Amino acid sequence: MPPPTWYVDFFTELPNEFWRRAVPPEVTVEEIDFVEQRLGLAPRSAVLDVPCGSGRHSLELARRGHRVTGVDLSAEAIGHARRAAAGLDVEFVHADMREIPRHGGFDAAVCLGNSFGYLELDGLREFAAALGGAVRPGGGLVVDFASAAESILPGYRAEPRTMTTGDITVLATGEYDVPGSRVLSRYRFTRGGEELDVTAIHHVYTVAQVVDLLSGNGFTDVELFGGPGGEPYGVGAGRLLLTARRTG
Q1: Terminal C-alpha separation, the chain
Q2: Which of 40, 85, 91, 165 falls between 20 and 30 A from 156, CA-CA?
Q3: What is the pLDDT of residue 215?
Q4: What pLDDT shows up at residue 189?
Q5: Integer Cα distance of 78 and 209 in angstroms
Q6: How buried is residue 224: exposed, middle or buried, by Cβ count under 10 Å (0-12/13-18/19+)?
Q7: DSSP 3-state assignment of 53?
Q8: How many other CB atoms are there within 10 angstroms of residue 147's CB atom?
């Protein structure tokens, strides 16, 4: 069984490189279009991207002229993001997602890529409080969460799947841990003679729990979408995109 802090050691070069290759650029563009449009971002907005991974959203926001701070715990991912950021107005910080600046100076915060479920409930409470402290009154928030109970549980089936991008192949298997209300995702990454076995945990929370955590930290006007196209979220949707506004 992986430790609760599985994410500390999971995101090394091989998994990170797989996901860098696996997401087409047009997906990132569509996601940032959603952020700009739904939050009504003004030019040169100060945006917090947490956790930012290898920086694909941070870099796209910076290319559009925003002032971006990306925070992530993976030293490898932060190093990659910094190398890719030459000439852009973006700062990458190596830190835990709960250790973000709480100065209330960000016009918006985004938590994309399904990382909202990495933390146990106490940790998620800390993260929600940190987001509330980071975003100014009137600022916006976007949360991307594929592990909402309303998404995961209807017809849940854990079937092995194989994914390949370039010379990296991944065998993924899943298991729903009922007592823990979480999904255990086991991955075997292979590249040439290199092989890596790692397990990720995605904690499953209801939409009501997520909304309650955020509203308790000053976020209101919550809207729920099933994807960046703006479709409504419903039971069985594969993904939740939540937007909210920080009150005064």
Answers
A1: 43
A2: 165
A3: 97
A4: 98
A5: 30
A6: middle
A7: coil
A8: 21
pLDDT digits (tens, 9 = 90+) for 88-128: 999 999 999 999 999 999 999 999 998 999 999 999 999 99
pLDDT less than 50: residues of the chain: none
Tell me the helices (H) and strands (E) count for the chain, helix number first: 8, 11
Residue 176 β-bridge partners: 183
Give yes or no for a contact between 117 and 204, defined as CB atoms under 8 angstroms apart: yes
Residues 6+ apart with CB under 8 A from 35: 41, 57, 61, 108, 110, 142
How far is 62 from 89, CA to CA, in rounded Å?
6
Rounded alpha-carbon distances, angstroms, from residue 40 to 37, 97, 138, 142, 182 = 5, 24, 11, 12, 34
pLDDT of residue 2: 87
Strands 161-165 and 168-177 turn out to be antiparallel
Q: Is this prediction's pTM over 0.85?
A: yes
Q: Using CA atoms, how far apart are residues 104 and 94, in angstroms rounded to an integer?
A: 20
- DSSP summary character for residue 21: H
Query: Domains in the chain, start-ordered, CATH in brackets?
Result: 7-146+206-246 (3.40.50.150), 152-200 (2.20.25)
Q: Give, as one character, the DSSP assignment of residue 102.
A: -
